[in-house]
């Protein structure tokens, strides 16, 4: 079986109760959780693999972040007072 390597960006967001939510922007709805960063990354790897298997089963194209440019932006804004 021919294998292909694809690139996926993962957003790891710390949760207030602890642990990390992992989101995969290229795969809508592909979200998972891990108690540690390492576990969240491993859970994301498993979630991506399952998502790809489902796409293949249904004959759908497999998106990736191969051409995506990743950056971040800091924005300063005025805060409003709550009434």
Could you explain how this protein is built, in words?
With 83 residues, this protein is α+β, with helices and mostly antiparallel strands. It has a domain at 11-57. Helices cover 25% and strands 14% of the residues. The protein has one helix and three strands. The protein has one helix at residues 37-57, and strands at 11-14, 20-23, 31-34. Strands 1-2-3 form a three-stranded antiparallel β-sheet, covered by helices on one side. The radius of gyration is 17 Å and the shape is extended. The termini are far apart.
The percentage helix is 25-40%
Give the C-alpha Rg: 17 Å
What is the number of helices?
A: 1
Largest sheet: 3 strands, antiparallel
Spans with pLDDT under 50 lasting ≥5 residues?
none
Which class best fits the helix and strand makeup?
alpha+beta
The secondary-structure element order is EEEH
Number of DSSP strand runs: 3
Strand order of the largest sheet: 1-2-3
Q: Looking at the structure, what is the overall shape?
A: extended
Distance between the termini: 63 Å
Mean pLDDT: 94
Strand content: 5-15%
């Amino acid at each position: 079986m021919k294998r292909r390597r694809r690139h996926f960006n993962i957003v790891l967001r710390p949760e207030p109760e602890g642990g990390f939510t992992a989101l995969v922007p290229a795969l809508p709805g592909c979200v998972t959780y891990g108690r540690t960063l390492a576990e969240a990354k491993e859970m994301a790897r498993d979630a991506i693999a399952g998502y790809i298997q489902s796409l293949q089963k249904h004959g759908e194209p497999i998106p990736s972040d191969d051409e995506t440019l990743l950056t971040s932006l800091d924005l300063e804004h005025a805060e409003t007072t709550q009434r």
